[in-house]
Write a structure and sequence with these properties.
21% helix; 8 strands; eight-stranded antiparallel sheet; alpha+beta; globular; 214 residues
Length: 214
């Protein structure tokens, strides 16, 4: 009787083990985790056409932009996906360089952070044609310095004054359609602590929301 009970118990434990294994993922992936692979111009699901977005900045107002996915599909797709996820809401402009640009979109607020995914740099020195020039009001992707051409993630900048020297080495992907005076105001009123335009956390202009305008 004791032996029979032991055998039945062993079978029961085996069935429980089989049921547990059956419920596990067998491909090593967790569907709840985001895709962290590099987004490139050969990836599926890239956007095309133009998209209108608004960046609402606390105490300043709204900067409206048009994004050009025909010219920079990787950068626009990444940016729109982050916007729809609410990624940028509550983040800041951590770098304000008058006469050059304002930079934001870093969850760490110090220039070292990003989202969980990097994207391919859409510019000529990375082998990709990009016809947008870094003139006043253009939005472009920030990245690490050379040679990290595919290091852009969530950080972006809006050009304050023409900076065409960036053409060919940074991925411009849209332009301001209204609210460029807000960029001027941020540059004029934000105190910086060094020649690189670094802004203390307490003084960083806050992105209340970025939204897609249908």
């Amino acid at each position: 009787m004791k032996k029979k009970f032991t055998v039945l118990l062993a079978v029961f434990v085996l069935l429980l083990s089989f049921a547990a294994c059956k419920g596990d993922k067998t491909d090593g992936k967790n569907d709840s985790n985001p895709d962290t692979s590099l987004l490139t111009n050969t990836s599926e699901g890239l956007l095309s056409g133009e998209y209108n977005v608004e960046i609402e900045i606390e105490d300043y107002g709204i900067i409206a932009l048009t994004l050009d996915a025909d010219n920079a599909p990787v950068s626009v797709t990444n940016f729109i996906n982050l916007v729809k996820d609410g990624f940028y809401n509550g983040l800041t402009f951590h770098r304000v360089y008058a006469g050059f640009m304002i930079q934001g979109g870093d969850p760490k607020g110090n220039g070292t952070g990003g989202s969980e995914r990097n994207i391919q740099g859409e510019f000529s020195i990375n082998g990709i044609e990009n016809n947008l020039s870094h003139t006043r009001g253009v939005i472009s992707m920030a990245r690490r310095g050379d040679p990290y051409y595919d290091s852009a993630s969530s950080q972006f900048f809006i050009v304050h004054k023409d900076s065409t020297s960036l053409d060919g080495s940074y991925a411009a992907f849209g332009w301001v359609t209204s609210g460029i005076e807000i960029v001027d105001s941020i540059c004029e009123n934000t105190p910086v602590i060094d020649s690189n335009g670094s802004v203390l956390p307490k003084n960083q202009p806050v992105i209340k929301e970025i939204r897609v305008v249908e």
